[in-house]
């Protein structure tokens, strides 16, 4: 399979590639599949994306589903409407925003994640201020989620309607409406929690 580099302004029609590098302003009008996708500039994709590794340190906008083995976001990754982001592992030090579901075995975020649902085995979201100028431009985006569901959950600076899990840690600056926990539960004094259900033990 071929490699493709978009260094200026360019468009690809879709297809299968080994590596796609976007350093300028690139767009894709159809579905793409690649072992590695590296975005440093701006990338707009109208079709579905499937990748081994998706690495975004620029700005990427997708209008359909994303499936990858690993996703690493240091910039801004946005998925329109209720399309899904699926991966084995997601690492986010920037911003991920979607109107749909994010599903991964492991999700570790030191940035912001805004989604309808986040589902996985281990979910850690530690929203904080960023020195990165790209992130500062998008500071109006907060970590807001309707449903977070996983075996182990650790949250900081997150607003959520419902959090379901076995072992749940609610750190500072969280606002959670409902928690259902069937293991160990910790709630920081600087967070606000509504109802709590389940067979849990407070830590």
What is the overall silhouette?
A: elongated
Q: Flag low-confidence runs.
A: 129-139
User: Level of helix content?
Assistant: under 10%
CA-to-CA gap between the ends?
53 Å
Task: Give me the count of strands.
Answer: 20
Which structural class should the secondary elements be placed in?
A: mainly beta
Order of helices and strands: EEEEEEEEEEEEEEHEEEEEE
Key words describing this protein structure:
203 residues; mainly beta; 20-stranded parallel β-sheet
Describe the protein in words:
This protein has a 20-stranded parallel beta sheet that branches. The longest helix has 5 residues. The radius of gyration is 18 Å and the shape is elongated. Helices cover 2% and strands 67% of the residues. β14, α1 and β15 form a beta-alpha-beta unit. About 5% of the residues have low confidence. With 203 residues, the chain is mainly beta. It has 1 helix and 20 strands.
Summary of the model, kept short:
By secondary structure, this protein is an all-beta fold. The protein has one helix spanning 133-137; strands spanning 3-6, 9-12, 15-22, 25-28, 32-39, 42-45, 49-56, 59-62, 66-73, 76-79, 85-92, 95-98, 101-109, 112-126, 144-156, 159-170, 175-181, 184-187, 192-197, 201-202.
SSE arrangement:
Elements lengths: L2 E4 L2 E4 L2 E8 L2 E4 L3 E8 L2 E4 L3 E8 L2 E4 L3 E8 L2 E4 L5 E8 L2 E4 L2 E9 L2 E15 L6 H5 L6 E13 L2 E12 L4 E7 L2 E4 L4 E6 L3 E2 L1
Parallel strand pairs: 1-3, 2-4, 3-5, 4-6, 5-7, 6-8, 7-9, 8-10, 9-11, 10-12, 11-13, 12-14, 13-14, 14-15, 15-16, 16-17, 16-18, 17-19, 18-20
């Amino acid at each position: 399979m071929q490699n493709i580099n978009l260094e200026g302004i360019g468009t690809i029609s879709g297809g299968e590639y080994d590596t796609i590098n976007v350093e300028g302003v690139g767009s894709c009008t159809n579905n793409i599949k690649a072992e590695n996708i590296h975005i440093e500039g701006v990338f707009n994709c109208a079709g579905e994306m499937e990748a081994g590794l998706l690495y975004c340190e620029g700005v990427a906008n997708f209008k359909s589903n994303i499936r990858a083995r690993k996703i690493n976001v240091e910039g801004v990754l946005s998925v329109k409407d209720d399309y899904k982001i699926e991966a084995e592992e997601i690492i986010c030090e920037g911003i991920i925003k979607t109107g749909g579901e994010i599903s991964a075995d492991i999700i570790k975020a030191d940035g912001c994640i805004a989604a309808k649902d986040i589902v996985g085995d281990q979910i850690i979201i530690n929203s904080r201020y960023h020195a990165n100028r790209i992130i500062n431009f998008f500071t109006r985006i907060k970590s807001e989620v309707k449903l977070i569901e996983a075996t182990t959950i650790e949250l900081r600076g997150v607003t959520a309607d419902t959090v379901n899990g076995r072992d749940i840690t609610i750190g500072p600056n969280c606002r959670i409406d409902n928690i259902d926990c069937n293991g160990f539960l910790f709630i920081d004094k600087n967070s606000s929690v509504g109802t709590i259900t389940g067979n849990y033990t407070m830590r």
